[in-house]
Design goal:
By secondary structure, the chain is α/β, with parallel strands linked by helices. Helix content is about 40%, strand content about 20%. The structure holds uridine-5'-diphosphate. Uridine-5'-diphosphate (UDP) binds next to helix 1, helix 4 and helix 6.
Length: about 180
C-alpha cells in the first residue's frame, strides 16, 4: 500500500446505513473487513469514528434546553458507543484492537495515552480513538487530524459522503468546486 501507518476517519452516519440512526451491524462488519485488509497487509491502523448517527452537540442544543457544551459531551460519548461497536466487529473478525477514550471511562475502555497508543500500533493492534478530542466545540474531523499528527500517520483516509474537499457544500450548492489539491 505504500503507507506504514494510517488514520481512518469515518462519520457515525456511515454506520447507520439507510436508517440514518444507530448501528447497522452488517455495515459495521463490512467496514471492519476493510480495516482487516489493511492490517493483513502490514499497515498500522488508527481509527476515529464520529457520533452523528446518535447525537451531535449542535442539534441537541437546538431548542435551548440542552446547553451546547453538554450536547457536545453527549456527542463525544456517542463516539465511544461507536468505537466499542467497532472494537467488537474487529475482534469478531480476529483483529487485535483497543479502544482509547479522550474522556476517562475506565470500566469501558482505556484512556487515551499517546505512548500506549503507539505501543499498540507497533504491536499490530488497531487503535480506535473515542471521545473525539475530549473538548466541546470541536468535531471528530479535528480529532482525526490531531490523532493522525500525534501518531505520525502517513495519511488520513476519510470515508465520507463526498469525493473530495470542496469550496462549499456540494449537496447545497450546484456550483461547488472540488479542490484538487490543498496546502
Ligand atoms: N464532539 C466534540 N468534540 C470533539 C469531537 C466531537 O464536542 O472533539 C461532539 C460534537 O457535538 C459532535 C459530536 O461529538 O457533533 C459527534 O461528532 P461528529 O459530529 O464529528 O460526528 P460525525 O459527523 O463524524 O458522525
Amino acid at each position: 500500500m505504500g503507507y506504514k501507518r494510517v488514520l481512518v476517519k469515518f462519520s457515525g452516519e456511515a454506520l447507520s446505513g439507510n436508517s440514518g440512526f444507530g448501528i447497522d451491524v452488517k455495515i459495521l462488519e463490512y467496514i471492519a473487513g476493510e480495516i482487516r485488509t489493511l492490517v493483513d497487509n502490514g499497515v498500522e491502523v488508527g481509527i476515529v469514528i464520529g457520533g452523528g448517527n446518535i447525537i451531535r452537540g449542535v442539534s441537541a442544543a437546538q431548542g435551548g434546553i440542552i446547553r451546547r457544551t453538554s450536547g457536545d459531551y453527549m456527542g463525544m460519548l456517542a463516539t465511544v458507543i461507536n468505537a466499542v461497536a467497532m472494537q467488537e466487529a474487529l475482534e469478531y473478525l480476529g483483529v487485535d484492537v483497543r479502544v482509547q477514550s479522550a474522556i476517562e471511562i475506565k470500566e469501558v475502555c482505556e484512556s487515551y495515552i499517546y505512548r500506549r497508543a503507539i505501543r499498540h500500533l507497533e504491536k499490530g493492534r488497531v487503535v480506535v480513538f473515542g471521545s473525539g478530542t475530549g473538548n466541546p466545540f470541536f468535531t471528530t474531523d479535528s480529532a482525526a487530524t490531531l490523532r493522525a499528527v500525534e501518531i505520525g500517520a502517513d495519511v488520513i483516509i476519510k470515508a465520507t459522503k463526498v469525493d473530495g474537499v470542496y469550496d462549499k457544500d456540494p449537496h447545497k450548492f450546484s456550483d461547488a468546486k472540488m479542490l484538487e489539491s490543498i496546502s
